[in-house]
Amino acid sequence: MKFFRRNNTEISSGSTTANQPALAEMALRAIHDGVIITDKVGIIKFINPAAVTMIGCGAPNNVTGLDYGLVIKLESKEGRELSENENPLIQSMRSNQPLDSFQGCLVAGNSGKRIPVAISVLPTEGSEQDRIITFRNITKELKEEGEQTEFISTASHEMRTPVATIDGYLSLALNPQTAAIDERARGYLTAAQAASKHLGKLFQDLLDVTKLDDGRIRPHLEPVEMIGLVKMISRDYQTRANEAKINLTFGPSAPANFGNDRRMEQVAYGFVDVNFMREILDNIIENALKYTPEGGSVYINVRGDGDRVLINVTDTGIGISSNDIGHIFQKFYRADNSDTRTIGGTGLGLYLVKQRVEAMGGRVWAESAFGEGSTFYVSLPRLTGEEYEKRMIAVRNQQAQMARPPIQPAQPPTVPTPLAPPINQQAQTNNNLNGEVK
Fold first, then answer.
1. Residue 297 — φ and ψ, nearest 5°?
2. How far is CA 420 from the centre of its chain?
3. DSSP class of 130
4. What is the pTM of this model?
5. d(C-alpha 325, C-alpha 62), whole Å
6. DSSP letters along 310-376, please?
7. What is the pLDDT of residues 220-251, one digit of tens each?
8. What is the pLDDT confidence band of residue 212, given thresholds at 50, 70 and 90?
9. Which of 262, 160, 143 is nearest to 214 (CA)?
């Protein structure tokens, strides 16, 4: 029995299985998201009409059989050109690993029009190992997010002032030199001050999120030796770890510590924003210490992994359930269980980490099991030694240029002012000009 007709093609209920490829292709041609299917080396086998329109290639035949890299030109959200090491699409295609909704700008054909998209890659199973690339136009979503961001930014900025005032008065009330209170009142005020500081931290985190979301903060990238940088930042947490009776170690093997520099033999260079790196590691290491009980361990390591620098922070803490781990980098998300309810947090720390890592062309993820600890990974583009030296020369030249005193503009030569002739001579000259000759 035939049950529908489209484009003069009849499909019967008895032949549904045989026509599944045709149905799948029909669905791909009908959806609004762009879809490109390539073989395992990146040659385009199929492109749907939505992708043709977004890329601006005119017709499917114009790009079928070409390398995807000639067709899909991707920039960062801020419109910055991505190098191969920074481009998550290239990294996903090369490694045959999935890519989940990376937000960037698609540069359309010869027109140069930039379309904000969320791009994903799904490797297929089987001998052919095709890749399915999808990209969704997120212009409308970004507009709505921008309106929300503007509201949050304004509200957070306005609320910081009264919260700071409240915190100031609480500090005065708790100061024995300015107020006399009993121990019960001191306990109440101490709790109120802790809540006030937590609220102030929430507003600061909200402002940081909105500044990066709307492009007011851009990464200032510079060449850095990554192992030394991570070690320097991590060392700041040694005292806190000791106070919490947690074993904090650093290096390629667990027994290493911050005083044993000979363990660190590898050198790995990156092109990063140092302030972003400090915020990233602050959030991840603080979480590791916060969720690791007394007597536990936190282990930090950095290594070069091909064309990437891989940082990992591993703890023996309470871990993250399988239901929560897919959401921990979302804004305001906090795992909800009996162990986490007693530990404070804004639910923005890991979202900030994800923002900053992706702004530098990197990727962050976590592996964990509830009750068995967690490992957070940060993967960033790696520079070769030659690239590092070239960029360092450029940095030193720029610093020298900035340190050089400004060149004063050349002054025109001073022309002496001619002296006025004597009065009698001036009169004679005037008569001559008037045609009077004596």
1. -135, 150
2. 73
3. -
4. 0.56
5. 42
6. EEEEEE-SS---TTTTTTTTSTT----STTTTTS---S-HHHHHHHHHHHTT-EEEEEE-TTS-EEE
7. 899 999 999 999 999 999 999 999 999 999 87
8. low
9. 143
